[in-house]
Fold:
Amino acid sequence: MLYVIQTALELGFMYALVAMALFLSYRILDIADLTTDSGFVLGAAVSVVVAAAGHPFLAVFAAIFAGACAGFVTAFLQTRLGVPSILAGIVTNTGLYTVNLMVMGWSSNVSLLKQATLFTMLRDTGIGGSWYKLILAAGVTVLAGVLLVWFLGTRLGLSIRATGDNTDMVRASSVNPVFTVTVGLCVSNALTALSGAVVGQYQKSADINSGTGIVVIGLACLIIGETVIGRRNIAVNAAAAVAGSIIYRFIYAVILKTSVVPIECLKLVTAVVVALAIASPALKEWGALKKRKMGAQQKGGR
Amino acid sequence: MLRLENIKKTFNPGTVNEKCAIRNLSLHLAPGDFATVIGSNGAGKSTMFGAIAGSFFADEGTIILDGEDITFTQEYKRSRVIGRLFQDPLKGTAPHMTIEENLALAFLRASTGTVPFSRISKKDKELFREQLQLLDMGLEDRMKQPVGLLSGGQRQALTLLMATMVPPKLLLLDEHTAALDPATADKVLELTKKIIAKNHTTCLMVTHNMQQALELGNRTLMMDDGKIVLDVRGKERADMSVSDLLERFRTGAGKDLDNDRILLSMEG
Ligand SMILES: Nc1ncnc2c1ncn2[C@@H]1O[C@H](COP(=O)(O)OP(=O)(O)O)[C@@H](O)[C@H]1O
Ligand SMILES: [Mg+2]
Structure:
C-alpha cells in the first residue's frame, strides 16, 4: 500500500513538469503545443543515452537543452514561416520521431544497466532512506516550479504573459511577439524534456512510444489541478499543475489496483475528461440557452 | 518632432477590395504640438496613425520622428517612444494580469537600461501607487486585482497612464473617449489634457466632437479621402467657430462633411 502511494507521488511529481509546461504554452501563451509528446521522449532519450555514457547530471541539462531546441523549431515555424501553431507542433513532433530514434542509436528503446543515475547516486548517499526517489522527484519539480514562477514575474516573463493575454496590446507595446512566443515555447519544451529526463533515469530506460498521449494527460492534470486548487495567480497555477498531476497518478493507481475500468481504457477516459473540461463553457452556455427556450415555451403554452 | 512626407497606403492592392486609404499625406508637427484630427468616416485617420505607429509599412514616403527615419522600423520598436490609445478600452491592457503587472510591463519596457530579468521593485510599486492616485479612481488600492475587473473607463485611464508614465515622444489618441459614457469620457479627457500639458507631449488626437477639435490643443487638422484638407492654427483657429470649420471643410474637400457621429454630437 505504502509502495503504491510512494510510486503515485513520485510519478505525480515527475509528470507534473509536463503539466507545468502546458500551463505555460496552453494557458499563458494560448498555444496548443503538440510538440509535447515527442519532446518528452526526446528528453528521456537524451537523458538515458548521456547517463549511459556516465554523466547523469550532464544528461539532465543536455535533455533540457534538446527540449528547448525542439521548442525553438516549433516557434520558428509558426512565428517566422507562418505555419499555423497546431500544425507547427505536429510537424516538429513528427520530425522528432526520427531524431529520437537517432538519439537512441536507431533502436526503439535504450536501457541503463549498471550505470549511475541521479536516483542511484542519491540512494548511495543514504539521504532520505527509502524515500529517496520521492525526494529527488519532488525536489526537481519544486525547484523548476519556483524558477518558473520567478521567471514569469520578470520583465521578460510579464511580456510573455501579455503576449498570450492581449495580442492587440502586445502589437502596440514594445513587446516583440516573435521573441516572446519563441522564448515561451523554448521554456515550456525544456520543462517537458526535463520531465522525460527524470522519468527516463527513474525507469532506467527510454522508449520511442513512451510519450504517446502525454499532451492530453498533461492537460488533464492541469485541468484537475485548476478545478481543485483554483487559478488565482501564477504561483497557485503552478501548484495546481503539480497537485493535478499527483491526483491523476493516484486515480491511475486506484484504477490499476481495483480494475474498475480496464487500464487499457485509461487513455480514452482521460481524453473524454479533457474534452469535457475544455468544452464545459460551451456546454454551460448551451444548457442555459436550452433552459431559456424551455422557459419561453412554457410561458407561451399557458 | 514628427515629419510625414508623401505617405501612401493601399490596402489589398491588386484585388477587388483595393482601397487607397491614404495618399500623398504630408504633415509636420513641431515639438509640443497638440493637433486634433477630424474627418469623415473612412477618411484615413486611423490609417495615418497606423502608419506612424508602424502597424504596417507605408507603400511610399518617409516617416521621421525626432530626427530619426523610422519608415521601416518595426512596430514594437517604435512603441518605445510612441504611445497609442484606441477607441476600444479593451485593447490597451492585459485582462488577466494585475494592474501592477500591466503598469510594470509599460514601465519596464519604456524606461531604458532595464534587463530582461528585472522585476517590479518596491520603488516601482511606490511610483505606480502615486501615478494611480493621480487618476483619482481608487485604483491605487486595487493594484493586485486583474485588470479584467475594471470598467471600460478605468481601463482606458489605466492605458493612458501606461502610455505616458514614461513620457513618449509622440502620443496618438484615436477617439480614445468615444466608447465611454459621457461622465467617464470627460474624466479621461481631463486627465489627457493634464498629462499632455505637464509633459508638453507632442500629440495627435482624433475626435468627432467639433467643439473639442477647436478647443483642445494648438492645431486642428481635417482629413478627407486620405489627405489632410485643412490645417488651421494660431489666430485663425482661435477665431474659428464650428460652422466656420464646416464651411472651410466644404471648400477644402468640395463636399459636406459626412460623419454621422459628428452630426449627432453637434445636435447634442
Ligand atoms: N486593414 C484594412 N484593410 C482594408 N481596408 C482598410 C483597412 N483599414 C482601413 N481600411 C479602409 O481604409 C479607409 C480608411 O480607414 P480608416 O483609416 O480606419 O478611417 P477613419 O478615418 O474612419 O479612421 C476605409 O475605407 C477603410 O475601409
Ligand atoms: Mg478610425
Summary: Residues B 45-46, 174 surround magnesium ion (ligand 2) (CB under 6 Å). Chain A is about 80% helix and 0% strand.
